[in-house]
Amino acid sequence: MLNIILEQAKSQNKFPDFKLKQYSTPEEIECACWNNEITIDDLINGSTSAATLNNNGEEGKMTWAEQKESYEEMGFWGFVDNTNTIHFWIKKDYPITIEELMFFFGHEMGHQMKGGVSPNEDDYQNNAEVHFKEEDRANEYGFVAMRAYEFAKVIKATETENIDSFLIKP
Questions:
Q1: What is the pLDDT of residues 86-110, one digit of tens each?
Q2: How far apart, in whole angstroms, are the C-alpha atoms of residue 60 and residue 19?
Q3: Is 125 helix (H, G, I), strand (E, B) or coil?
Q4: This prediction's pTM
């Protein structure tokens, strides 16, 4: 049954076909995010900076060293492009959980689902209100993916007491 639903969704262009591309360093993924218009040497030499938006919607600048530190603290980072390729980097030895991966991939896919503003569009890059609204919308997809995984895990579990905590009794 699921195969039929998925095929119908794909044939009606309701569900984009996603691809994955993994990077081994923060520098590599950062260059990819800039469509390779900058080089790793540009990052290392400090000849680039990124316009940022803080949680108050105020614009600022962030050096590559600051960005890299932020990525390293998170342990992973990524983005989706307009070809539905999800680019991602995971810090070596970072103990990423399935839940984090489910949220991350759900979030990135959410950017490309109907009704969203693509992260590649000008308004997303240059308008704090649009940017944060779109990130919140994509987070909803991340939460749904993570919660669906939690439910699936419980259903597959052999302990029925775990299942009972999710079931509504008649």
A1: 999 999 999 999 999 999 999 999 9
A2: 32
A3: helix
A4: 0.79
